[in-house]
Amino acid sequence: MLKEIIISIQSFFDAHRFIIKHRLWKWILIPGLLYTLLFLGGLWLFWTSSNSAIEFILLKTGVKGWLDRSQDGFLSFIFIVGQIMLRLVLLLFYFSLFKFLFLIVGSPVFAYLSEKTESIIEGKEFPFNTAQLFKDILRGIRIALRNIVWQTFYIISILVLSFIPFVGWIAPLVALLVECYYFGFSMLDYSSERSRLSTQQSILFIGKHRGLAIGNGLVFYLMHIIPVIGWLFAPSYAVIAATLSLLNARKNHVII
Q1: Cα–Cα distance between 61 and 25 in angstroms, integer?
Q2: Which residues have a Cβ under 8 Å from the Cβ of 35 and sit 6 or more positions away?
Q3: Nearest to 136 by CA among 110, 111, 113
Q4: Residues with Cβ < 8 Å from 167, sequence gap 6 or more?
């Protein structure tokens, strides 16, 4: 899996050179602007509602009342760290919901970019077909909806984990890995569809090569550290890098 993660990370650098060489900037900036607006909206929603959500959870579980009665300094410290971990997990949960919304909205562009990338690399044309385009869009939506159900299940489980002292401190890391996998999954599925893999076959294939998905999602999230520029480039770079990573993995006999 480590080799697949490295290939996936390297593919982002390959994607940058590929975009420059083939002048694909308009296909980067158009979805990038939409993504940035949605991302800012998601952040605003998170900061305005997360405090209320945390207070509600603590009150309903009785944790806050119990802590107030105990008046223990060490427990207060554990409680503060736990709140930070809980906020980070909630941030990832909010982000995942927004991310899947964008994947649904942007599926036509992502399907085209993935196809365009493979077309250039392989030197063959994929004839435009309106019916096929709609099939690709519907498949992208189905995959996004399927992934959000499973990811929500895992995130809720991780939220429960975050309440456990010490053990819960790794909850944000586990949540991040889950986020990375499911985002990379969506990016890789465009190539799986073009290889005529059914949805179930794609799920099994990407699950077997989850390093490619995790690596793709990891760099996608790291790009958000760079304000605006990172947000603009992250989604389109991710889909091109995902396509290149599959081609590179096959070339290096990592996958068959």
Answers
A1: 50
A2: 102, 106, 231, 232, 234, 235
A3: 111
A4: 161
* Token duo for residue 68: 């107030």
Query: Three-state SS for 23?
Result: coil
Question: Please, what is the average pLDDT of the chain?
Answer: 78
Q: What does the block give as tokens for 91?
A: 């941030």
- Residues 101 and 145: beta-carbon distance below 8 Å: no
- Residue 123 structure tokens: 């030197």
The string of pLDDT tens digits covering residues 4-18 is: 888 889 999 999 999
Residues 216 and 12: their CA atoms lie apart, in Å, by 8
Kindly report the number of other CB atoms within 10 A of residue 183's CB atom: 28
How do the domains of the chain map onto residue ranges?
2-251
Query: Distances in Å between the alpha carbon of 129 and those of 21, 54, 68, 85, 135?
Result: 26, 48, 64, 47, 10
Question: DSSP code of 223?
Answer: G
Q: Which two tokens stand for residue 18?
A: 């590929």
Rounded Cα–Cα distance for residues 86 and 23 (Å): 42
Dihedral sign (CA 50, 140, 22, 128): negative
CA distance 255 to 211: 11
Query: CA Rg, the chain, in Å?
Result: 20
Instruction: Calculate helix-pair angle for 229-251, 107-122, nearest 10 degrees.
Output: 40
Span 117-150, pLDDT tens digits: 888 887 776 666 677 667 777 777 788 788 878 8
The C-alpha atoms of residue 211 and residue 5 are separated, in whole angstroms, by: 5
